[in-house]
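Appendix C reproduces, verbatim, an entry submitted by the partner laboratory led by Prof. M.T., so that reviewers can inspect both the input and the predicted structure.
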Amino acid sequence: MARERHSATLTGVARILLLVTDLELGGTPAVVRELAVRLCRGGASVEAACLGGFGPVARQIQEAGIEVTALHAGGIFDWRVIGRLSRLIGDHRVQTVLSFLVHANAAAAATAMMNDGVRYIQSIQTTQPWPCWHWWVQGAVEHWAWKIVVPSDSVAAAAVEWSGIRRDKIVVIPNAVDAAGDRSGAVPGRLSPTSVGFLGRLDPVKRVADLVDAVGRLEGVHLHIFGDGPDRHAIEARVRQLGLGGRVTLHGAVADARQAFSQMDVLVLPSEAEGFGLVLIEAMAAGVPVVGTDVPGIRDVVRDGFNGLLAPARNPEALASAIRRILRDGPLRSTLVDNATNDVRQRFSWEAVLPRYKRLLLDD
């Protein structure tokens, strides 16, 4: 078990372990990083662990002086990781484990019988109905959890329906961003906006090809795609098929979202399922207007016509219409940006969200 220690513990305070499947670039690892750093600043004793190997976000957490342990699971059926995790919990005298995503939830639950006196909290971050076995496993392991944290009412409804979790066991705590973030890189105020952007994992559920189709219907618009993942080749094939090679740029993964937002006049999230859509509030905080699909998770964040626009999922024509509306209507664009900035501050800033995590994790 590879381990690099950066002490962040304080004598006499509850020891908290944040466990996640991996610490590669992505929405949930970013939530784990920010939560660890902010809890630690507040005096909590926090460390992080991931089932896989070290990734970029693990190193970011370490740079903040927080211990990170990689458990190096060889796959989803590598049961040796359970022993490693159990020893970590025992050796470090962990008192609360907050796990994120079904694999980490299952691994944490498997250690419960070996670690008396440890409080387990699980987190579900998706409304994606497939694969169905994920929801079956979640329903089987939730009995070991004291509470289940979800980022939106949509995820709560999915957990009740598909995993049979009692609603009174679920705590809704939205994801958060730094609402006082740097907006200097955003470019939504240009008189002739022409740049559309996507930022996230290139996964089929994101339906980035629908966004490519939508941009093909918009004259003079360039699409910037930031991220990587299994759907990259399919997206590249769609770009070639539509002859959009000169109007679509795939940049690959970026470590700093501000780098991506600086090249966007509007961010689009065309997913058919989301648990929350962290990138939406990141864009809002950066002053970039957003278009999302009208699906669970996204509609928990985007209020159509108030802080962004919604379009039906799997409908490139409707998506193109919403993008066109934002690009052409300057007053609307400004109103959406102003409303989104205020909305993020009130609902999705760490100032608003962190106290809820502290009550859950630190209060007896």
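The CA atoms of residues 187 and 265 lie 6 Å apart. Additional entries are available on request from the coordinating office.
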